[in-house]
Structures are given as structure tokens and as C-alpha cells.
TrEMBL record:
Listed InterPro entries: GDP_fucose_pyrophosphorylase, GHMP_Kinase-Related, GHMP_kinase_C_dom, GHMP_kinase_C_sf, GHMP_kinase_N_dom, HddA/FKP, Ribosomal_Su5_D2-typ_SF
Entry protein name: Bifunctional fucokinase/L-fucose-1-P-guanylyltransferase
Family statement drawn from the similarity comment of this UniProt entry: Belongs to the GHMP kinase family.
SUPFAM superfamilies from the UniProt entry: GHMP Kinase, C-terminal domain (SSF55060), Ribosomal protein S5 domain 2-like (SSF54211)
UniProt domain GHMP kinase N-terminal: residue ranges: 773-851
């Protein structure tokens, strides 16, 4: 119970320390005055790994997620030779001493050194990127997937405030969790940062023996439990002072180390070469720290196990090191509570991320980090920065990192997939690590490194080292191989085995990895084995050395962006408002690469309903963040969104094909009424009606006793077409098809005429066409005029669409077609898409025939309209005619992009818009019911409800003028509504019983006099 309580308190402490460290880290990014590292130095094993490290740093700097004042250095071992952690430390000191702001004086400088130049032999998938940049299973508070490097910088952000000057050295494969306030940096020489850990952990690492005064008495490296207990290193709780690999050096010790390679204060090339070389291979821990322990002796120092091998050169180096350092001591800073997490082998990594991940919940570690993948609870798998399609199957104990799994890919138990794109493959228990090699003659080259979860690449053939489903010995025997087929040296380790063929594509490299797996457990196909033998093959070691590390960050960035995009799309698919969905990308929203990806997906991959929402979201983000990409502005993307809707509707139609016609009548004239809308307006508008279906209730009316819409066609002997817009007093003649195809200019007086000819299939929408030939086949040219009589512009009575309907109907009669009403509705809808007006279908249906119409459609790109005429008794008709009145507001609707605002809100997922549209459909149903029941009062109440809902959908549907008009006659009316979209034009009212239209007119004229506000004569067409 006491132990459990301690563990709980320890976890709470470390969690708070974790949170505090993040806050310190954020301050170091924002505030130059915050105490931070002057230099952060990373060591690397070779030039290529150093370039990989530098690209990771640059990537973070570009994202502004690194401390603002810190300078970064990345230093590879010279000439690709392994010089040991001590040699690397001397190289760091030399490089720092050469920096302009240091110039050999380390005083007042705080330096963090992370030794990260290992080969990662026991976790080979990190040998190229470096174990330092291996994943840590948590998503940082700013949304990034974390790595050891990120955790080091965050965890150490508070340390600079704890000491004035000096250098902190860390081991790149150990994560330390502690509170920096525990560090007492008052020491002379060095200070080892230790923590209490179970002796069972200590025996596999290093242990410090305390002299009783908090100084290091002895170093005990990988000693048995019995030895540790005998020497007094184990306390009564069974814990030791663990060597965490973290050491602080003061300036004096730094200078003493640098003096080893200096003469008269300057770097001596001969001395430097003596200490920094592959043969001596000086160790930071074994060679620099050993002389600092109180009980160390020179005699024993010579016998300490080196990082390389014993040699005369090493002995000479140790003599000089002893002389320079033995006068210094090493303080022991023991942190508690603290945590030591070692990233050791592939097997340990897999266990940590699957079986043991729950132990680190207090650190917000979790198996799924920065991915779109949603795991089933029963599957114990882990994913880090990976894009996984929904058809992919993961079994227990799988781990996927920096990869893209597609199609019907299946991962069986105990799989590790790293840096790969897989599609439609089944992967048995194994590790598969994709590596792109440096190009040869400009050609891309790939290998896939395959090995088993339990494989230790250091193990040899002679030691029966395991390999995939068997061991190295069985691999050779089963496939009749000789050692020289795989190894060029006497070192027969898995690390040195030339197993992995070089091929031109990752897909082929994957297939060879599968062959290796078969070869490890059974006799494989001899032809394939012979082909494998004939190919150029590399070992784990060689592939690491010639890997192209420059591709890692771009690949990870691409994955990161694709994952963010997939998350964004999922939020849109779930119906989220675009404002919330865009937060997926952070506070600055889209960058150029994400924009490019989304635009490419919209063009090639996304279905219609997702494409329009993506385009609309992009346009809003660009507008409000004041961005443009590649010179493209937000309104161009917005236009593309609405054009996509129009194009999709046009494509879905089967009546927009060019046909051969003959003029059937010499003259045709069509007159139509206008319409008033009652219920469900806007639900007929694409894309809402295409996705949800529409429901509308409207009625045809005469205005001042006449049908205001007129279209006339007359046959002409000339082979041309004459256009007229009589209400605009505009006349014109066209002689070419190209003039008609140019029909998208909203200021063209004949745009409607031209679009009608294209929609009806007389003229092709695009491409070359001979107008004279077309007219010759028709039997002559023709005159086409349109006119809207006595209706003010912007009336809200559907005149534009009804005029389109009149054009189509007139053309149908003129050409002798047998178009049904449904054909005409569809042709008009197409006509409006051609004109890019983007309207719905209720206006033309409302005006093409008389009566009160209940119009519905089901979801679908091709809208099939069901038109039902309300069967009202004569009394209801009479009452409705008597109580219904139209009031003209005296003003046109505001000149604003109303359609795009309303439709855009729906596309963008605005909750209020979606709810309002749904409610409008319900109100239309109820209105029909009440009218058929003969209850005009109930109908009036529903009009009032609809008016309130309309204002929720679009606040611009009303204004001060409209509100005042309704207020001025409130005592005379039971119901009120707008015509069309509102904002001006006509208003509709249902008068109280006993109130006449003359009484309404008199009251309005009394208030508004000659301002234009008046009651117009409206008569239903039954």
C-alpha cells in the first residue's frame, strides 16, 4: 500500500514537472529574456546523419518551435571515423572555442551537448535518422508528434536557470524526467545527475558509489547485483544511484579538457589527432569521468574497458587525461522523484509502446500518436506519425511509424513498420524499415531492411544469432548458401550481413524483404534465391552509411500534412463547421504545402460533397488569414467551389446534349405568371437539395391582373439570330456560335438567351460549331425576345428563373418538341448552371403552371421533382385570396452575394444554417396541411414562424425598412413573410379577418406617403 501510494505521488509530481517543463519551453520560444541555452550541440556518427539532424532542426526552426536565442551545432565524427564519445566531446569543445561569441572563453555560457552519434545497432530502424529523433509516444500540446530530441529540449528547458555557466552532457538514448529545481549546481569540476533506481536496472547500466558526502567515490559499470551489494551501492530499499549519462562540467573542467589538445591556448593539430581518432576511441564516461571518482587509481584506470580496444595509443591518452583531470572531483546530484527511460532494443521498444504504455499515462503517452487511425479496443497496437486507410488491418503488438499503409494491407502480430508506403500486402511478424539510398547516376535506389523483433544485429553466425523466423545458420543451410555469399569479412554478425538487395522502387524492395522472411524459415524458390544472389546487396551497416538522410524530413512532413488533412476531412465529414475544422492545422491554419495537397486531392480524389466543402473551407481560411498561394486569391477558390456545384449538376443531366432540330412554328409567344414562396425556400438550392432533398410550397400569381413574363420567337429568312431584351431596350444580332457560347458575362443583356440555346441543345456549350449550318438544318434563323412587364428589379417574385422557364417552353414549342414539365424543369436548372447563377428549382416550377404547388425532391445530383397541386375547397381559396396581400417595399434587394452567403454557410457546416433549412422543410409540410384543412389562421402563424427561421438562416433577409413596414401594419395582419430571399422587393402578409386591402393601403400610405411603399394587386392563378 505504501509503495503504491509513493508511486502515485511520484507520478503526480513528474506529471506536474512535465507540465512545468512545457511552460518553460514555451517561454524560451517567446521570450529572449528567459534563461536558455546559448548553444545546443548534437554529435553524429557521420556526415549524412549530421545532415539528417540539421534538417530536423531547420524544420523546427521554420515552424518556430525552438528556443529563440539558442544557437545549434551538429558535429559528425571526422571523416566518418568513430572517435568515441570522449573524442566527440573534445571536438565539441574545439568547435565551441572557435565560435565568435566564445573565442575560447566559456564563462557565462550555458551549453547543452547531446551525444547522439551511435549506430543504433540494436534498433536499426533509427540508425539513419539517429536514435535521438526516434519517436516518443505522445502528442505535444502544440499538436506535434514528439521525439527524443523534442523531449530533451522540453525537459531541459528549465535547467539553464539553475546554473550560471558550464556544459551539460546527455546521452542521446536516455530520457530523464525530473524537476530542474532539484539541481544544485554548486560544485567544482563535474556533477553527475543520478537518480534512485532498482538494483535490477542498475546492473545493466552504470552505478555511482556515494562517498557519504554526495561525491562520487567509485564508478561501477555493469556490475552484478552481488558486487553492488558487497560494495555498499545498494540501499535498504534495494535502490542504487544510477548513472543516467547526464553530467555537468564547470568552466574549469571544460578548459582542462580543451588543454589536452592545445598548445599555448591554441588547438595543436598533432595533440588533437592523438585524442580524436578511431584507434584510441576515447570514451566520455570511461575515460573522462573515471579519473574524477575519489577512489580511482591510475593503475586501475589503465585496465578500464575502453570504448574501442586496448592499445598503446589509448594508454598514452589516459596518462595525459589523468594528469589533467584527477585534481577535480565529481559531485553526485541525486534527483528524486525522477524517471529514467532507456530506449534500448527493438523488442523493448515494442513492449514499451504496447504492453507497458499504460504505465506512462501520467505523461500523456498513448499508443496512437499523430495518426488518423482509430484502433479497435481489443487490438493492442501502436501508431506514430502514420497514415492508415480504413481498410488496413493491424493485429496485436504491431507498431507503425512514419509510414503510409493503404488498401488491403494486413499486419500480423509483432510487426514493426518504419519509413514505408505499403499497399495490399500481408506482413508476417518482422521489422520492415524502408531506406532510400543516395542516388547513383541520378537514379533512385531503395532497400527494405528486414529483421526480427528479437534479433540482435551484434550476434553472429557462430553464436546462432536469430534472423527473422529462424537464425543465421538455418538461413544459410536452408538456401544452400556459403558464408562468402553474405559476408566479406570474418565478422559474421547480422549487422555486417549483405542481405538487402538494391532496387529501383520501394515496392520491389518490399517483395525482396518478404523473400528473406521465407528464406529464414523454409527452402525458398531456387530461381528467386538465385536472382537474389545475383543482385547488389548491402548490410545493415552499409545501408546506414550510404542512406540518403535528406529525404527523411520531407517524407515525415508529407505524412504529417496528410494526417492533418485526413483529420480535417474527418471533421468536415462529421458535419463540423469549417471554422472548427480548420483548427486542425493550428492557429495560422493552412500553409502552402497543405494548400497544394488539398487542391490536388480536390481535383483527383475527393467525392463531390467533400470537394466543395474543402474548396469552401480553403477560400474562407485564405480570406480571413489574408493569404494567397501561388498568386491565387481566396475568391478564385470560392468561385471554383460554386462552379464545381454547377458543373456537377450539369454533368448529371441527360438532356444537355446537342440535337438536330427543325423549326415547327413560324411564331410562338409564351406568357407566364410570377410566384410567391411560402414554405421551404432555400431547400431547393444546390447542393442542399442534392444532399438532403428539397420541400417547397409556393403559388403562381398574376400581378396587376397580368402575366408579367413574356418570351416571343419568330422565324427569320436570314441565317442569323436576333436577340431582344425589351424591358432593357436591348437588341442584337449574332452570326457565330462562339458569340452564343460566350454566355457567362453577368452584364450581357442576352446571357439568358444564349444559355437557353445551349441548355436546349441547339448550340454546343464549347468547341467549334457553324451557326449558319445549324440554322440551315433548322430551316432558318430566328428572332428571340424576352420581357418582364411591370415588375420591379429585385422583386423576390422569381422573375429571372421564370423567364428562363418561359424561354425553354417557348423554344420547345417553336421547335415542335414534346418536352414534359419535368424536362423543362431540368433544362431550366441546367440553363442557370450555364449562366453560373447557381439557383434552385422552385421559381420555375412556381411560375410554369398555375395553382398552389407542393414540390419535393429526393437526394441526388439529378433532381427528380414531384409536383403536387393542393386541392383546396372554394371557401379556402376565396378566404386566401381575400386575406393575402403583397406590399412593395419601394427598394430593390441589397446588391450582395446572397446566394453564396447562404449556400456557403450550409457547405461550411454552420450549425444554425443546417438546422434552419431542416426546419423550413417541416414548416412547408405543415403549411400544406393547414391549407388543405382550410385553416388560413394556422397557415398565417406558420408564415410568422418561417419568417423567424429565415432570419436565422440569413440576417440580411430583413432590414430597418422591412421591420418598419411590418411594424406599421402589425395591427392589421396575422401573418407576415418576405418574397424570395428578402432584403427588399415585395413583402407578403395575411390580413386579419375583416381587414381589407384598401384599409392596409390607406394605413401604409398614411405612414410612407409617396416613398413607393404600397399594396400591389396580386391574384392567384388556380
Amino acid at each position: 500500500m505504501i509503495i503504491d501510494q509513493y508511486k502515485k505521488m511520484k507520478n503526480l509530481f513528474l506529471r506536474q514537472s512535465y507540465i512545468d517543463a512545457w511552460e518553460d519551453y514555451q517561454r524560451s520560444i517567446r521570450k529572449r529574456s528567459f534563461a536558455q541555452w546559448d548553444y545546443i550541440v548534437l554529435t553524429a556518427s557521420n556526415e549524412e546523419q549530421a545532415n539528417a539532424f540539421q534538417s530536423q532542426i531547420t524544420y523546427r526552426q521554420n515552424k518556430n518551435v525552438l528556443p529563440c536565442k539558442t544557437k545549434y551545432l551538429v558535429l559528425p565524427d571526422p571523416d566518418g571515423k568513430r572517435v568515441g564519445s570522449g573524442g566527440a566531446t573534445l571536438q565539441v569543445l574545439r568547435k565551441l572555442a572557435e565560435q565568435e561569441d566564445i573565442a575560447g572563453d566559456f564563462h557565462n555560457k550555458r551549453i547543452l551537448v547531446i551525444h547522439s552519434g551511435g549506430d543504433s545497432k540494436r534498433v536499426p530502424q533509427y540508425s539513419v535518422c539517429g536514435k535521438l529523433f526516434s519517436p516518443v509516444p505522445r502528442e505535444l500540446p502544440d499538436g506535434r508528434a514528439s521525439t527524443l530530441f523534442d523531449e530533451f529540449l522540453i525537459g531541459m528547458a528549465g535547467v539553464p536557470s539553475r546554473f550560471r555557466e558550464g556544459m551539460l552532457v546527455l546521452s542521446g538514448d536516455v530520457l530523464l524526467l525530473f524537476n530542474p529545481l532539484q539541481i544544485d549546481a554548486q560544485f567544482h569540476g563535474a556533477a553527475a545527475i543520478s537518480m534512485k533506481s532498482p538494483v535490477d536496472v542498475g546492473k545493466d547500466h552504470g552505478v555511482f558509489l556515494n562517498n557519504g558526502k554526495d561525491y562520487v567515490k567509485k564508478f561501477l559499470h555493469k556490475q552484478s547485483i552481488e558486487t553492488l551489494e558487497k560494495l555498499g551501492a545498494v540501499n535498504t530499499h534495494g535502490n542504487v544511484d544510477l548513472d543516467t549519462g547526464a553530467v555537468l562540467f564547470d568552466v574549469n573542467l571544460m578548459n582542462a579538457l580543451l588543454s589536452l589538445v592545445q598548445t599555448d591556448g591554441k588547438i595543436d593539430a598533432e595533440k588533437y589527432a592523438r585524442f580524436v581518432n578511431e584507434k584510441s576511441r576515447i570514451s566520455l564516461y570511461g575515460d573522462f569521468l573515471y579519473p574524477l571518482a575519489e577512489d580511482s587509481t591510475l593503475e586501475q584506470y589503465y585496465k578500464e574497458q575502453p570504448e574501442g580496444t586496448f592499445c598503446e595509443e589509448l594508454t598514452e591518452c589516459r596518462t595525459r587525461i589523468w594528469e589533467a583531470l584527477h585534481s577535480f572531483g565529481m559531485k553526485l546530484i541525486c534527483l528524486s522523484p525522477a524517471e529514467f527511460i532507456h530506449f534500448g532494443t527493438t523488442r523493448e521498444l515494442l513492449a514499451l509502446l504496447t504492453d507497458e504504455i499504460a504505465d506512462y499515462e501520467y505523461l500523456d503517452w498513448k499508443p496512437m500518436v499523430f495518426t488518423n487511425y482509430k484502433s479497435e479496443k481489443k487490438v493492442q497496437a501502436a501508431v506514430h506519425n502514420a497514415l492508415i486507410e480504413g481498410t488496413v488491418q493491424l493485429a496485436d503488438k504491431c507498431y507503425v511509424e512514419n509510414s503510409w499503409l493503404r488498401g488491403n494491407t494486413v499486419l500480423e502480430k509483432d510487426c514493426v513498420i518504419s519509413q514505408l508506403e505499403l499497399k495490399d500486402v500481408t506482413v508476417p511478424s518482422m521489422v520492415m524499415h524502408g531506406v532510400e539510398l543516395k542516388r547513383e547516376n541520378g537514379e533512385k535506389r531503395y532497400i527494405v531492411r528486414a529483421y526480427g523483433i528479437k534479433d540482435n544485429p551484434k550476434k553472429t553466425l557462430e553464436e546462432r544469432g536469430s534472423f527473422l523466423a529462424g537464425d543465421l545458420r538455418s538461413f544459410i543451410n536452408l538456401n544452400n548458401l556459403k558464408t562468402k555469399d553474405i559476408w566479406e569479412s570474418e565478422d559474421h554478425s547480422l549487422w555486417k550481413a549483405k542481405l538487402y538487395p538494391v532496387v529501383e522502387s520501394q515496392e520491389k524492395a518490399v517483395s525482396w524483404a518478404f523473400l528473406l522472411h521465407r528464406m529464414s524459415s523454409e527452402k525458398a524458390d531456387e530461381v528467386k534465391v538465385a536472382e537474389w544472389k545475383s543482385l547488389k546487396r548491402y548490410s545493415l551497416e552499409e545501408s546506414f552509411q550510404i542512406a540518403d538522410a535528406s529525404v527523411l524530413v520531407p517524407w515525415e512532413e508529407k505524412l504529417e500534412n496528410r494526417i492533418l488533412i485526413e483529420r480535417f476531412l474527418n471533421r468536415l465529414r462529421a458535419g463540423e463547421h469549417y471554422v472548427d475544422s480548420l483548427k486542425t492545422f493550428g492557429i495560422t491554419e493552412l500553409d502552402e504545402k497543405q494548400f497544394d495537397m488539398l487542391m490536388e486531392m480536390a481535383e483527383k480524389e475527393l467525392p463531390f460533397e467533400e470537394k466543395i466543402r474543402v474548396l469552401y473551407s480553403i477560400s474562407r481560411s485564405m480570406k480571413f488569414m489574408k493569404k494567397n498561394f501561388h498568386g491565387i486569391s481566396y475568391d478564385q477558390i470560392e468561385q471554383k467551389c460554386f462552379a464545381t456545384i454547377q458543373q456537377e449538376i450539369f454533368r448529371a443531366s441527360n438532356v444537355n446534349q446537342v440535337k438536330k432540330y427543325k423549326i415547327a412554328e413560324n411564331q410562338v409567344k409564351v406568357s407566364l405568371p410570377v410566384r410567391v414562396n411560402w414554405g421551404g425556400g432555400w431547400t431547393d438550392t444546390p447542393p442542399y437539395c442534392n444532399e438532403k432533398g428539397g420541400v417547397v410550397l409556393n403559388a403562381a400569381i398574376l400581378l396587376n391582373g397580368q402575366e408579367p413574363i413574356e418570351v416571343e420567337l419568330r422565324k427569320l429568312p436570314e441565317k442569323h439570330i436576333e436577340f431582344a431584351s425589351l424591358d432593357l431596350d436591348a437588341h442584337g444580332v449574332v452570326t457565330t456560335a462562339a458569340e452564343i457560347q460566350d454566355c457567362h458575362n453577368p452584364y450581357d443583356s442576352f446571357a439568358l438567351h444564349k444559355a437557353a440555346l445551349i441548355a436546349c441543345g441547339i448550340i454546343p456549350m464549347e468547341g467549334e460549331a457553324d451557326l449558319e449550318k445549324i440554322l440551315d438544318e433548322m430551316g432558318g434563323g430566328f428572332y428571340m425576345s424576352t420581357c418582364v412587364k411591370g415588375v420591379p428589379k429585385g422583386s423576390g417574385l422569381g422573375t429571372s428563373s421564370i423567364l428562363s422557364g418561359a424561354c425553354v417552353r417557348a423554344l420547345g414549342k417553336f421547335l415542335g418538341t414534346n418536352w414534359s414539365d419535368s424536362d423543362v424543369y431540368e433544362l431550366v436548372l441546367n440553363l442557370e448552371q450555364i449562366m453560373s447563377t447557381g439557383g434552385g428549382w422552385q421559381d420555375q416550377v412556381g411560375g410554369l403552371t398555375g395553382g398552389i404547388k407542393y414540390i419535393t425532391s429526393r437526394p441526388g445530383m439529378k433532381q427528380k421533382l414531384k409536383v403536387e397541386y393542393l386541392d383546396l375547397d372554394e371557401a379556402t381559396k376565396a378566404e386566401l385570396q381575400e386575406r393575402f396581400a403583397l406590399i412593395y417595399t419601394g427598394q430593390r434587394r441589397l446588391a450582395r452575394n446572397l446566394l453564396r452567403d447562404v449556400v456557403g454557410n450550409y457547405i461550411g457546416g454552420k450549425k444554425e444554417s443546417k438546422e434552419a433549412l431542416e426546419e423550413m422543410k417541416h414548416l412547408a409540410v405543415m403549411m400544406r396541411y393547414e391549407l388543405e384543412q382550410g385553416d388560413v389562421d394556422a397557415f398565417a402563424r406558420l408564415l410568422n414562424e418561417h419568417w423567424e427561421v429565415s432570419k436565422k438562416l440569413d440576417a440580411g433577409s430583413t432590414n430597418t425598412c422591412i421591420d418598419q413596414i411590418f411594424a406599421s401594419c402589425e395591427d392589421l395582419i396575422d401573418g407576415k413573410f418576405i418574397s424570395g430571399a428578402g432584403g427588399g422587393g415585395f413583402l407578403q402578409v395575411i390580413l386579419k379577418k375583416g381587414v381589407s386591402k384598401e384599409m392596409l393601403r390607406a394605413q401604409l400610405l398614411d405612414v410612407y406617403q409617396d416613398s413607393g411603399v404600397d399594396v400591389w394587386d396580386a391574384e392567384f392563378v388556380w
